[in-house]
Amino acid sequence: MPSTETKLRELTVYKELGMKTAATHFCQWLDGGLLDHIDKAFIQEVDDYWTSHYGKTIDPALPTAFMNLTGRKDKRLIPGKVMRTEILPVFNDYDMSVFYKDKNLYDIIVDPPRSPETLVKNINGNYFDAVHNSIDIETARKKIVTSKTDLIIKPSRSNNGNGVAKLTVKDKTIYLNGEVVTFNELADLYIENFLIQEAIQQHPILAAPHPASVNTLRMVTFRWKNEIRYLLAFARFGSDNDIRDNAGASEGADGIRVGIDDSGKFFKTAISKHGQLYTHHPTTGFCFADLEPIPNFDEYKQFVKDCHKNILPHNIISWDIAMGADGKPVFLEPNFAGTAPFYQLAAQKPFFGDLTDEVLQYVRAQHEKSEPVLMLKDRRRAERKLEEERVNREKQLNVELTQAQKQNASLIEENKKIKSALKTKEDILKLRNDEFEAKEKELKAKKNELKDKKTELKAKKNALRDKKAELNSVKLKYKRTIQSKSWRYTQLLRSVLKSVKK
Description:
InterPro entries: RimK-rel_E_lig_ATP-grasp. By secondary structure, the protein is of the alpha+beta class. The protein has 16 helices and 15 strands. A hairpin with a 5-residue loop joins β11 and β12. The N and C termini lie far apart (154 Å). Mean pLDDT is 90; it is low at 247-253.
């Protein structure tokens, strides 16, 4: 058994090739061995083909699975998502689908040449007979308890066989799943919008692999260029003794399908919805290679094309057709969607066959003109996705808002601290400024004082200079005096006078 590391490495290879490894179909095909062989050159051819004809590449898982299943390399396989959300909305008016899916209206809308005999219809709680006469519940009950054949009861507005059950009538007693029920109990169980038909007596060819179920053909028609064309077909067989042809859980055997070629011959290998291949039926052991061809298969093709003529808003329809005991086709119901990858693997051919190139180019051109209307479930899925994105975006915004509020609170607190620190610094600066101004005044006063002293000193210096000049003048005068003749002549007299004074 490969290790986890090996599996992860293998998944990386698939991812690098453009495969969506988380998709359900990928996991199923991988488990079924349909992705064992990878041809990178072929995958490049697929990319080139789709880029050329459709303007974009696709997930190459389906062409790879088809190659592993059939041994053929075909670039024209239509992936499920492309079919469901891009191609079908171009060709089918899904706003009309609800009307065309009501089984109680098929005999009016489709008016098929052959269909199961309807005994009773319930529409919105009102009862009608096969020719649309309004009847009461007692008349409806009598039609059922007097039936000579087994009956099928089913909701008129459901899909995929949901609610379909077989009724047996013996001695005017109704049996549901082997249990006795009254008609009123059936009415309470299904509430409203259901119908009761005679069970189909199917042909031994389709009954052989699994006799307990009503096995059917799924046939596809396509209105293209004013002509309704048959595209492909495969047979659907039930399992686990369930009445439905799409039921069963044996080893993943949900929906056993066997492809049919254009001549009505069955392929020798069946495939389940889970990608499992079978040469023998998992419940009965019937060998699919022993299936006999469908007689007059061209009649079946024409039958579904004729049915399609009465459904105008839908150009691609998948038909559920039973094979009556006489070998003739019997209409069951139309389907306006379907699982395109499963169709192509079961039928072992591209959905549109040789029309693929021009269909893709047409769809591409339509998408360039306008956005097609998706089927209701895809619209709801898209709405849910948008709502989820809105909720997630709102949650993210709330988280970001909470974070921003926390950051804001933190910034406010930090701002307070900064303001407080700034105020302290401002006070310190103011104090220092006051001290500076005081010192500046003191220095200015001292400067003025020095200036005054300087002026005073200058004045004193000038006074000293004047006195010095005066002294020099006196000295000069004295010097001249003592050098004069009169001074010498009077020297004796001055001495006598000096003595007299003493």
